[in-house]
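Page 37, continued from 36.
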């Protein structure tokens, strides 16, 4: 299975957790639903159309943490632009404390069923081209990306190590090692074109970017790396 590998990073990121409202919290990694949006932005697919082509049934994505996950909280001063007429008349402001990822960096492993779209994606990433601005969650959190490699993903019956995040359901046993930071989050895995989540699944990761050790299934060997698609 042909797999595109590229890195993406930025100064800040925010992937809002679905159960937070007044004080938004962020996922530790971009959920697959956010990755579909990133791929759509690079390809130039509209926000109303990209989920018809890039989704959990047509696209595989694995996420490797390249830098330790760090989070910070920043108070945003939100303004009401709907009912104020002119910008200088705006009087309604709301301060919202929001959690952000600080200096996030990830390596993405991607495969797409649509060969035409996948070839376009490979070409654009290799040439560092994008149709729409790429961001890490919110529009003003600009992201950079670079091509790493294009390799074949070879399925493994089992593995004693995995270097990406992994679905909890694919863990038979995990070895807890001193000095490692283990974390589990429930991520949205798929979404329909109306932006309604179709599934959520528990994902396990090591927050410093170290590998997980134990017994795992549904893994792939990509070059020198062992990965698990979400």
């Amino acid at each position: 299975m042909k797999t595109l590998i590229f890195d993406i990073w930025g100064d800040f990121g925010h992937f809002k957790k679905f159960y937070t409202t007044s004080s938004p919290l962020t996922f530790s990694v971009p959920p697959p639903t956010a990755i579909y949006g990133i791929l759509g932005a690079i390809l130039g697919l509209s926000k109303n159309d990209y989920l018809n082509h890039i989704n959990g049934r047509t696209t595989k994505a694995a996420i490797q943490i390249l830098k330790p996950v760090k989070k910070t909280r920043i108070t945003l001063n939100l303004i009401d632009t709907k009912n104020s007429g002119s910008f200088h008349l705006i009087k309604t402001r709301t301060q919202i404390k929001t959690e952000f990822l600080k200096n996030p960096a990830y390596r993405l492993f991607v495969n797409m069923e649509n060969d035409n779209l996948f070839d376009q994606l490979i070409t654009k990433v290799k040439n560092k081209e994008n149709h729409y601005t790429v961001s890490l969650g919110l529009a003003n959190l600009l992201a950079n990306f670079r091509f790493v490699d294009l390799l074949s993903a070879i399925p493994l019956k089992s593995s004693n190590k995995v270097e990406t995040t992994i679905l909890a359901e694919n863990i038979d046993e995990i070895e807890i090692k001193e000095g490692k930071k283990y974390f589990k989050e429930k991520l949205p895995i798929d979404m329909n074109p109306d932006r309604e989540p179709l599934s959520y699944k528990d994902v396990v990761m090591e927050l410093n970017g170290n590998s997980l050790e134990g017994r795992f299934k549904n893994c792939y060997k990509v070059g020198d790396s062992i990965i698990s698609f979400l």
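The domain at 2-227 is CATH 3.30.70.2660 (Alpha-Beta Plaits). Flag for discussion at group meeting. The longest strand covers residues 143-156.
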